[in-house]
Amino acid sequence: MSGLDMAIQGGIWALEILAIAVPVALSVAYITYCERRVIGFMQARKGCNRVGPAGLLQPLADGLKLVLKETIIPAQANKLLFIGAPLLSLMPALVAFAVVPFGETSLFGVWETPHIMAISNLNVGLLYVMAIASLSVYGVLMAGWASNSKYPIMGSIRSTCQMISYEIAMGFGLVTVMMLAGSLNLADIVHAQAGGILHWYMIPLFPMLLVFFISGCAETGRTPFDLTETEELVAGYYTEYSGMWFATFSLAEYGAMILISLLTSILFLGGWYAPIAALDFIPGTIWLLGKSALLIFVFIWFRATFPRYRYDQMMRLGWKIFLPWTFGWIFVIGIFIYTPGLDSIIDFWLAWR
Amino acid sequence: MLETAFFNLFAGLSIFAGLGVVLSRNTMHAVMFLIFCFFNAAGLFFLLDAEFLGIILILIYVGAVMVLFMFAIMMLEVNVSKMREGFQQYLPIGGMIAVILMIEFVAASTTGVFTEGAKATAEHFAQDVNNTKEIGKVLYTKYLLGFEIAAIILLVALVGAIVLTIRGRKDAKYQNVSKQVNVRREDRVRKVSM
């Protein structure tokens, strides 16, 4: 491979990364706008409507304000890790997008076989997402520890416990998806759900859909599980953060929210396939993004309606309800796959037999 | 060429991170270096087409084991001057180990294992060979007994850890959630005739 080839390849990689990272950053900005408007609507008030037409410039104004604010670093903080923590929590949220397949395209007939629209169509994509998602714990832990203050460290320990607990339920929930699809490749998992709404995994795996989505809610610290930033702990692990670094944390939170929504649509809601064949004329990417947008709306809806969990209730839900539930469902699916007579039922969804 | 470049990058960074673990004063920095080292080791696995092992290394070691490590270290009170007290005392034995290791490494590198021709240049698998599937095939057939033994050891350790740390506290108040949920209006509301 010559130097020029390598340079071209590097340029293509950079473009691919930009093509994912820029829309993610933009949609984060407009999800915050959307969140305020939707919650405003649900609470019978206006929401932000002053900056620009219908308040559409509000996210830009917010971003500008956060960037211009002074960054305060506590005197006793560990400076390196204090600055590193927000980056450590943003990095996994963005890196995980590398394997998310956004659809299939033959580039208007230029390519003979359709290609998967992902930066990397990894064979172990699902494991990769789980591995990267488990890294977001470090940002939280570091933020709490480096601030050198009691409320952040309490908040970060709480938050870490929450993330670890729900990660386990989430991982075991995904085992059932692997059992049906027989693959860890996200594109293969979507292909296994081809053929209309009845083939989607939300039908045989409905309890796992609930477990995955609610655990995702807990992972990102969204409302019923936002007890890491409750008033009793000032603002949890990011008490000491201000300005841009604080904004980085929320960017990570919203990025993770988009990721969870995309993954839920890919794993359980048929990815880029239309629910019925008559709707196939709409491009797959639009279907995938539409399903994800619906799930993001559900996240916001949760925030507007549910009261916050108490710490012990949250732990109980993760360990005593979700975990046995997922174990039970793995068992049920396993029995269905290997019992003669029952396997004819599950064969409808089974991709590998 | 690209592969060699990446190998050198990952290998160099993992050595740098390993040095960082040993040399950094701050234990928290040392843990971060160790995490970085695991990442680079995972990168080396990827270069060898063992993507499953690489991902599992990140998932288990970085995602779980090191979090536990960090919890333990965060709770420690590290006193640097006290740590240095025994430095003179441990210097001879530590130095001895270092010298032995050094001799071993030098001896190993001069035997010709690392010469240009002898480098491991394994053929790459085709795109359709699925690493995960191949590992599963041998793990659950040929090595099933070892796998089961490992699983039982882990289970025993898990149960043992719970048994050692559980305390049935009588003075603490617990809530019975199903009882709370099952409460009916009649249980709580009493009509009083005035």
Helix segment tally of chain A: 12
Beta-strand proportion of chain B: under 5%
Amount of helix of chain A = 55-70%
Largest sheet of chain B: none
Structure notes:
The complex is a heterodimer of chains A (353) and B (194). Chain A is mainly alpha-helical and 353 residues long. Chain A has helices at residues 3-42, 58-68, 79-95, 125-133, 136-146, 150-181, 186-191, 206-220, 243-267, 284-305, 311-338, 343-346, and strands at residues 104-105, 115-116. Chain A has a two-stranded antiparallel sheet. Chain A is globular, with a radius of gyration of 21 Å. Chain A starts with a helix and ends in a 7-residue tail after the last helix. By secondary structure, chain B is mainly α. In chain B, α1 packs antiparallel against α2 (27-47) and α2 runs antiparallel to α3. Chain B is extended. The chains are: A mainly alpha (353), B mainly alpha (194).
Task: Provide the fold topology.
The complex is a heterodimer of chains A (353) and B (194).
Chain A: H1 3-42, H2 58-68, H3 79-95, E1 104-105, E2 115-116, H4 125-133, H5 136-146, H6 150-181, H7 186-191, H8 206-220, H9 243-267, H10 284-305, H11 311-338, H12 343-346
Antiparallel strand pairs in A: 1-2
Chain B: H1 2-23, H2 27-47, H3 51-75, H4 80-83, H5 87-110, H6 131-139, H7 144-165, H8 177-181, H9 185-188
